[in-house]
Amino acid sequence: MAHPPLQWLSTLKLAQLKNLARATGINSSGTKPILSARIHDEILHSRALHSTDKRNNVNKYMTTIISIDMGIRNLAFCCLALKPPTTTTHATIPTLTSWSRIALLPSNPSSSSSSSSSSSSDKEDPFSPPALAATAYALVTNTFLPLAPTHILIERQRFRSLGGASVQEWTLRVNMLEAMLHAVLRTLGACGGWKGQVVGVAPGKVAQFWLGDGGESANAEEMRGKGKGSKSARTKRAKVAVVGQWLRHRDSVVEFSEELNGVLEGYLRRMEGRRGGVEGKEEMGKLDDLADCLLQGMAWVRWEENRSKVLSKGPDALGELD
User: Fold this and answer.
1) Are the beta carbons of 303 and 288 closer than 8 angstroms?
2) Strand boundaries in the chain, DSSP class E
3) Which of 147, 19, 93 is nearest to 305 (CA)?
4) Side-chain half-sphere of 116: how many Cα atoms within 13 Å?
5) Left if phi > 0, otherwise alpha if psi is -120 to 50, otherwise beta: which for 190?
6) What is the distance in angstroms between the CA of the first residue and the CA of the last residue of the chain?
């Protein structure tokens, strides 16, 4: 039987509430009353992971999730397809059907734009609002919507990196693109061009979910042992290693479409430092963006499944949360 009011949350200790918040993708800060109220509200208003609305379901999967790791020259995204769960389980194993990193602008956009002396100043600047708006619209309509997503997850951006006092110009550009993606999707939804849900995801919650408070997990022991670089660099290596383990063992965490075999091999080759690529294909570039978008999508699936468990099983679900 479901427990809509979730009154039992008030009986939990603060440490239990924090663990529940982490397992469901909810901010774990605050005192016990504040945290209990936040968990109560967010779980009660949780998004349905497996929708009964079939208007967007153009394939055999009920739910199709696009997870985006933001960037302009290194935007990475993946597509996860989920079949409906059975009546005896809340969990399903997602299938990774698309996984790539793309450059939305050429490596030196100023050189390509300067060749046209008759262009206006806005058209010459690929980072101007009109130019980025066109880029965002093309990305959504030409790349994302053809995958028939029911949910689109967009990585939340910060204005400052690593606690720095200054705000970098490149950070502002990526923030502007993030806002434009939300605007395009909201407009399409309001006009009936797409029926789906858009979710902003804080990257810190994703890292905490997979790597723990220390930023590194037992799954990434091989990276932790190197001990090189800053904490941020070690965390990046740890996240790359977590995904690498999924690819190596093809375990029950995520399944992979056969069409992605070349991408999976390139990822492992790059992670393990093996030189050379698959014949006829370029060697895989940086891995952290690819890892981030997949970890984000998988974390959100786990959060929603855990919320469903809490709603249906009440306090008995606490021992079953992933």
Assistant:
1) no
2) 63-69, 75-82, 95-102, 151-155, 197-201, 255-256
3) 93
4) 12
5) alpha
6) 21
What CA–CA distance (Å, rounded) separates 209 from 93?
18
- pTM equals 0.85
CA angle at 110 for the pair 109 and 111, rounded to the nearest 5°? 90
In 3-state terms, what secondary structure has residue 275? coil
Residue 25, token pair as written in the block: 């993708």
pLDDT tens series, the chain, 322 aa? 444 568 899 899 999 999 999 999 999 999 999 999 999 999 988 766 655 444 444 445 579 999 999 999 999 999 999 987 665 555 678 999 999 999 998 766 554 444 444 445 555 788 999 999 999 999 999 999 999 999 999 999 876 665 666 778 888 899 999 999 999 999 999 999 999 999 999 999 999 999 986 544 444 454 444 556 778 888 999 999 999 999 988 767 899 999 999 999 999 999 988 766 555 455 677 899 999 999 999 999 999 999 988 988 888 988 888 7
